C-alpha cells in the first residue's frame, strides 16, 4: 500500500528528515539521548560568573563552547548553528549551503546586559569614575562596541543563520517565551501545509544564563534555590519542587512535505502531525485556574493530528518544576484524557537539562521523535517525594522501554503562551 502524502484534511503531510540538538549534556543526538535515558543531569554550579550574592547559583550552562563571557546572543547563535549543522547533515540535502525553504528561529529577547553596559560606561568614564551621557557616547564612538551593536540588533542572529545555510526568503525571528521553540516548528508546519514551501528549517536556541536573568526570574519566585546538590534541584511533579533551573541549549528540525522527502529518497524520521495553540490572558506568569487555555491547546493539537486522546502513548511534559506549572499541566492533561491519564506516561527532560526557555519546545521535539524511534521513555529524575495532587505516571527516575507511536509535547510560557505539538512515527 502506497504511503500517503497528505493528511486526513488533504493538507501536505509534514515529515521530519533531519534533527540536531545541543544541551548541557553534550553535542548531538547520540550524546544527549545516551545521557537522558541514563538519567544523568547536566545541571551544575555556575562557574561563568560570580554567584555569591545570588539566591540561585546553579544552571544547565553550556561551557564547552567558548564565547565572549556573558554575551547571550553570541552563545545563542553558536548553539543554533551547531544544532542546524547536525539537522541539515542528517537530512542529506543536495547542498548544505542552499536550504530549499525558509528559516524560523526562536531566539531569546535581545538586549544589552548589565556587564556590557558597565564595560561601555567604563570606556567613557573619567579617572574619577563618574559617567555622563556624553561620555557614554564617547565610549560608543570608539568603535570598540560595534560587534555588540550588530549582535543586539533584533533579527541579526536569524540573518546570519539564514546566510550560513542559504535558506529562502526573509528569515523569521520569534520569541513567545517558553513556547518559542514549539512555535517555530508550528510556523514551519503551517508554511508547508499552505503550500508556500516544500521545506522549512526550524530552530529554537537559548544561551542566556547570566546574572540579570537569574535576578529577574528570582524576583518572580520562579527559580529553585536548592543549590546543593545541583543535580538534585530540578524536581518536576515532586511535592518538594520549588522552581525551575535555567538551562541552555538549542535544537533544529528539518521539515519537508512528505511528497518532497520521498521524491528525493530522504529517510523520514517521523512526522509533525498536529499543532495547537491558545493564548491565556489571565496573568503574566500564572495560568487560568480552570486550565481552559491549556486544555484547548492540547485538544487542538490532538484534533489537528486527526487523533483522539486515546491515541496518545506518551506525553513529553513541559514539566518545569514550579508548583504552579506542574499542577496546571497535570490538570490540563487529565481534563483531556480523563481517567486514562493515570496510566499514560508523562516525563520531563527538564529534570536533567533544566529549562532551556526559548529553546525548550524545539529540544523537546527532538527528544519526542527520538522516543518514538528508540522505543524508550526518558525518566523524570529526582522524583523521591510524590505529590498526591498529581497522581500521574511520571516515569520516575529510571528510563523505560515502551511501544510509542504518538507523542504529545507541551510548551507553556509566561505571558499566556501555550503551544502543543503531536509527533508520530506515521499518520494513523
Automatic annotation (TrEMBL):
InterPro entries named among the record's database cross-references: Beta-ketoacyl_synthase, Ketoacyl_synth_AS, Ketoacyl_synth_C, Ketoacyl_synth_N, PKS_Beta-ketoAc_synthase_dom, Thiolase-like
Domain Ketosynthase family 3 (KS3) stretches: 11-425
GO terms, biological process: fatty acid biosynthetic process
Highest taxon above the source species: Bacteria
Gene Ontology terms, MF aspect: 3-oxoacyl-[acyl-carrier-protein] synthase activity
Pfam families named among the record's database cross-references: ketoacyl-synt, Ketoacyl-synt_C
Annotated pathway: Lipid metabolism; fatty acid biosynthesis
Family assignment from sequence similarity: Belongs to the thiolase-like superfamily. Beta-ketoacyl-ACP synthases family.
NCBIfam families: PRK06501.1
Protein's recorded name: Beta-ketoacyl-ACP synthase
Species annotation: Enterovirga aerilata
Amino acid at each position: 500500500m502506497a504511503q500517503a502524502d497528505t493528511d486526513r484534511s488533504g493538507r501536505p503531510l509534514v515529515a521530519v528528515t533531519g534533527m540536531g540538538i545541543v544541551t548541557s549534556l553534550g553535542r548531538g543526538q547520540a550524546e544527549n539521548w545516551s545521557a537522558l535515558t541514563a538519567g544523568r543531569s547536566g545541571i551544575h554550579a555556575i562557574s561563568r560568573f560570580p554567584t555569591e550574592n545570588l539566591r540561585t547559583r546553579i544552571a544547565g550552562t553550556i561551557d564547552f563552547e567558548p564565547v565572549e563571557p556573558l554575551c547571550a546572543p553570541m552563545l545563542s547563535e553558536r548553539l543554533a548553528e551547531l544544532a542546524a549543522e547536525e539537522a541539515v547533515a542528517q537530512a542529506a540535502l543536495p547542498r548544505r549551503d542552499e536550504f530549499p525553504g525558509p528559516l524560523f528561529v526562536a531566539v531569546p529577547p535581545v538586549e544589552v546586559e548589565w556587564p556590557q553596559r558597565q564595560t561601555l560606561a567604563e570606556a567613557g568614564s573619567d579617572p574619577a569614575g563618574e559617567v555622563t551621557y556624553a561620555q557614554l557616547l564617547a565610549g560608543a564612538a570608539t568603535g570598540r562596541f560595534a560587534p555588540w551593536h550588530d549582535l543586539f540588533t533584533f533579527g541579526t542572529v536569524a540573518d546570519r543563520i539564514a546566510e550560513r545555510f542559504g535558506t529562502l526568503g526573509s528569515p523569521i525571528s520569534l520569541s513567545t517565551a517558553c513556547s518559542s521553540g514549539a512555535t517555530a516548528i508550528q510556523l514551519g508546519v503551517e508554511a508547508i501545509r499552505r503550500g508556500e514551501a516544500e521545506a522549512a528549517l526550524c530552530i529554537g536556541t537559548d544561551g542566556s544564563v547570566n546574572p540579570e536573568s537569574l535576578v529577574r526570574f528570582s524576583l518572580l519566585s520562579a527559580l529553585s534555590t536548592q543549590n546543593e546538590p545541583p543535580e538534585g534541584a530540578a524536581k518536576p511533579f515532586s511535592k518538594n519542587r520549588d522552581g525551575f533551573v535555567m538551562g541552555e541549549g538549542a535544537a533544529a528540525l528539518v521539515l519537508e512535505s512528505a511528497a518532497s522527502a520521498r521524491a528525493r529518497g530522504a529517510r523520514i524520521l517521523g512526522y509533525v502531525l498536529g499543532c495547537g495553540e491558545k493564548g491565556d490572558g489571565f496573568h503574566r506568569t500564572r495560568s487560568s485556574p480552570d486550565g481552559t487555555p491549556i486544555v484547548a491547546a492540547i485538544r487542538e493539537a490532538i484534533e489537528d493530528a486527526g487523533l483522539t486522546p486515546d491515541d496518545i502513548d506518551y506525553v513529553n511534559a513541559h514539566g518545569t518544576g514550579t508548583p504552579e506549572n506542574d499542577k496546571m499541566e497535570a490538570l490540563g492533561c487529565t481534563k483531556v484524557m480523563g481517567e486514562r491519564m493515570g496510566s499514560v506516561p508523562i516525563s520531563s527532560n527538564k529534570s536533567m537539562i533544566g529549562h532551556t526557555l526559548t529553546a525548550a519546545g524545539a529540544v523537546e521535539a527532538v527528544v519526542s521523535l527520538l522516543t518514538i524511534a528508540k522505543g524508550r521513555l526518558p525518566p523524570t529524575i529526582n522524583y523521591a517525594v510524590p505529590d498526591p495532587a498529581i497522581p500521574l505516571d511520571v516515569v520516575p527516575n529510571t528510563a523505560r522501554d515502551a511501544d510509542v507511536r504518538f507523542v504529545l509535547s507541551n510548551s507553556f510560557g509566561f505571558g499566556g503562551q501555550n503551544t502543543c505539538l503531536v509527533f508520530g512515527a506515521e499518520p494513523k
